[in-house]
Specification:
alpha+beta, 3-stranded mixed β-sheet, 8 helices
């Protein structure tokens, strides 16, 4: 796909997502999201470490409110895969976000994912679950693409939510209600699948 077509696809998808998720998010969350197409390399600085990885096709950088797409990989990716990647990153962009500070630590939340920072360490909580649910929603929209990321996590998530109402799942996710989600899942299963995405 050409860079020009990538930009057109981005703006078309941006309108679709604003419409599709208007029950769960404010349109103002979608409006500022922009697209940057850059060559990734090991020396390029980013507050987000993925930009130093040449084989990552794209990522969402919240500080810039931008989906950063790897220009060097663009020519190798087909249209369906690019659509899948863009949709996935848009869902990161419109996910619930919060920052809270407690004595000695800061907690950043994005969707169902939390990062705890303290003077001694950083701890990731439910990163795989978050990626799995985003890829689950992405697959529902764009179809399951063989080479798209996080398919293993999406497959586990599909088993976890098979008896869960889709509307409720979206509502919980876009409000960041991880504790409510866990209660529902643990009520309907033994919790082993959820542990795989912890």
């Amino acid at each position: 796909m050409s860079e020009e077509n990538l930009v057109k696809t981005f703006y078309r998808l941006k309108k679709e997502i604003a419409q599709e998720y208007k029950k769960y998010i404010q349109p103002s969350k979608v409006k500022p999201i922009k697209l940057e197409v850059l060559g990734f390399n090991k020396t390029k600085y980013s507050s987000y470490p993925y930009q130093r990885l040449r084989n990552i096709p794209a990522f969402y950088e919240h500080e810039k409110r931008a989906i950063i797409f790897n220009k060097n990989l663009l020519k190798f990716l087909n249209k369906q895969l690019i659509l899948n990647i863009l949709y996935h990153e848009f869902l990161h962009a419109i996910s619930f976000r919060s920052i809270s500070r407690k004595t000695g630590k800061t907690i950043l939340r994005s969707g169902f994912y939390a990062q705890e920072f303290s003077a001694k360490r950083k701890r990731d909580i439910f990163k795989k679950l978050n990626e799995g649910i985003i890829q689950y929603f992405t697959n529902k929209k764009t179809g399951k693409i063989k080479n798209a990321g996080y398919q293993k996590e999406a497959k586990i998530l599909t088993k976890i939510v098979k008896n869960l109402d889709e509307e409720l799942l979206k509502k919980l996710f876009f409000k960041g209600k991880i504790e409510e989600f866990k209660k529902i899942v643990l009520k309907n299963s033994d919790g082993n699948l959820l542990k795989k995405l912890a």
